[in-house]
What we know:
The longest helix has 7 residues, at 10-16. The protein is mainly beta. It has a six-stranded antiparallel beta sheet with strand order 3-4-8-7-6-5, with no helix packed on it. A three-stranded antiparallel beta sheet has the order 2-1-9, with no helix packed on it. It has a single domain, classed as Beta Complex (Metal Binding Protein, Guanine Nucleotide Exchange Factor, Chain A). It is globular, with a radius of gyration of 14 Å. The chain has helices spanning 10-16, 19-25, and strands at 45-49, 55-58, 62-63, 71-72, 80-85, 92-97, 103-108, 118-121, 126-130. Zinc ion is lined by residues 49, 51-52, 54, 97, 99-100, 102.
Amino acid sequence: MSKYQIKKSEAEWKAQLSEEEYKVLREKGTERAFMGEYNMHFDDGTYTCMACKNPLFNSSSKFDSGCGWPSFDESIEGSVEYIKDTSHGMIRTEILCTNCGSHLGHIFNDGPTQTGQRYCVNSVSINFDKK
Ligand SMILES: [Zn+2]
């Protein structure tokens, strides 16, 4: 059924997630810019996958990109999968949780920090564990 550690049917995901979470995480939707809970959130802690609690990003890698979505300049090693995405007439790199295959957002190589990376993540795809 799937190569991911967490194997759930879409019906199981639908039952577990809110309508908006399901739309983004499982149907690769995008939340509205500047509306997300974690866009301007800078507490110390760890951001985890909303679907499976896999730790994805440390708060130390978060920065304000001005793009309207939570942005990170690196992910926790091994937590994010990268897939070429040619939808909407663009060539982008989609980012997924390696543990459950849920959609997180996209990554761009125009980051302003040392890594040059900008992980652009939907707030509804992540949860925050305060340190
Ligand atoms: Zn996950």
